[in-house]
User: Fold these one by one.
Assistant:
Number 1:
Amino acid sequence: MESVTAIDSPQPDSPVSYRLYSARRPERVPSRPRSSAPPAPTAALGVGVIVPSPKGVLLGLHRRGAWELAGGTVEPGESLAEAAVRELHEEAGIVADPDAVQVLGTLLDRVGDVVRITVPVLVTRWTGTPHQREEALGSWRFWPADALPQPLFVPSAQCLTAWDPALPLDHPPARFQPYERPRQH
């Protein structure tokens, strides 16, 4: 607010009066990139989708020979739960709702110069039969926890260990920060 000017009626016996307000919007600080070039990649964010069943945990065989959980990169505008549901459907044909996804925490490790952030998520309800939907990943099946196949993709092994620390899996270390479960009221 810069000023307020009172304007009285030109008729001396009129109680009408006007107020003229002069205001200025505060200057906004613009935000823009330093250059038009994208930043060099220094971090990667992905989800590892844990789908348990009475038969075990769902893993698919990548064409490069490692067994892995469904999962992948989180796209701009997606929640972690939405990314998990999308990746699970795209890769294995399983349908789940984001409300049936429990985000377990954050795994942090480094691959060369890139910090890898992997979020293990647990799908508690789903429908469908796993089947190959992408050329790179198939042979989906449920593996008992005591008979997991080898080799396991490192982020998948890290996610599985975050979910169940008792699993006898060897993998490079990753810092796991579990998320607290919301309190039920």
Note: The radius of gyration is 27 Å.
Number 2:
Amino acid sequence: MAEADPGLLRALPAVPEIAVADAADLDRTLRAAERPFVVRGLVADWPLVAAAKRSGKAARDYLLQHHKPVPFTVSVGTEGNDGRMFYDAAMGMNFQTFRGKLPEIFAHVDRAETMAEAPPIYLASINVRDFFTGLHEANHVDLGDRSALASIWIGTRTRIAAHNDFPHNLACVAAGRRRFTLFPREQFRNLYLGPIDNTPAGRAISMVDFHDPDFVAHPRFREALDHALVAELEPGDALYIPSMWWHHVEGLEQFNILLNYWWRETPRWMGQPQDALNHAIMAIRDLPDDEKQHWRELFDHYVFGNGDDVVAHIPEGGRSVLDPLTAESAGRLRAFLLRQLSR
């Protein structure tokens, strides 16, 4: 299948490239970074990368040596969509999801590699430690004291719509090539996001077709492109994506593998902001305007402002969740919310 010509994306400014000397240098760079950057060859010494440089089949064989005999979740799209994993005309998904053993899935990939037109096959966000033995130990980035979730993404030629993630992300290409088109977090209004509950993979996505944008339906997308960056990664290269930056991801070869690492700067016991947004839609959005305005002021007071005046009049030791949260107080608050929501 010939690659679609995304000339619009290729003309964008490139994500800056940097060099890092060692794990300590990478750690310092990540702590200081506020924008994306590329490190060429960061994981070039991985055995998985070496296998992939021989062939896609060699990379798959390497993964099969480490996989656990458990069912994997795989998404299979439809032909003729240029690998785009997206909605169908009825706002359902244009792909189906199945479960199967990895050797069986890879047998389908073997056949797809020889076909001029084949449906996209995609294994997304597979936990490396849960589904493989020894793969992480032989192929990983030293991220210091970060408690990072390592995931692997395996597939044929695919296009994943622009979305963002709450954690920071270090994405490492092990096989094939990846093109990332990135936008600062504040560009969400110009990306024309779809539903926040009915999503292909849990995050709201841009409704814009990046290979064929409709500027009549999506005129503000031109403004988004004025702020966009693009990175094309080869095997061994890595890209840092800061928290909440939007990214459109393309697997450009017949077979592609990405390993990525997600981590938060905040404790794991803190809640997910997306859950708060979902609850606010249910509880606040459709209130009368005067009531919504009052709740906006309360949110500013307790959440976004959170100044000393919020608690100054309350005796120390009696401020409950208005004090800085701990694992214990967050646990009590979560239990309270669960009781309220279950009524």
Note: DSSP finds eleven helices and 14 strands in the chain.
Number 3:
Amino acid sequence: MAELYNMAGHLIRRLNQISVAVFTDHMAAAGIDLTQVQFAALSAIASRPGMTQAELAGAIAYDVTTLGGVVDRLASKGNIRRDISPRDRRARVLFITPDGDHLLARARPVVRALQDDILGGLDAEERAQLLALLRKTTDAGNSKSRAPLRTP
């Protein structure tokens, strides 16, 4: 088992489990009904109003098919709206609603605060080093992902 416990994939999976648990707990404590992916989607739509669902998937590195359910839930809760694209009538463009803006404004400080809990046990310098290394390795492996990050 010692070998498993020192493998990057195992440790990354465990850190993801911790990240999801911490995010979920903090959101529940703040009375906010939002998942990590919903937060990422709202953030991206707020920063680039009018993007398509495919562009959103690329912006947050999420599978476009699975993202459909996320977009449906955000729309059904009144946090985003979907309009017909003026460039392609088959596509929908996404916009954050006033309710979505309010939700995002409530969630952002909570999300910023919980980052320290995700990286518990590390001092500020170690956190900066880990984040730099995570960015470096995810950038290097982006093309290997089934849902690569695509920045405009």
Note: The domain at 2-144 is CATH 1.10.10.10 (Arc Repressor Mutant, subunit A).
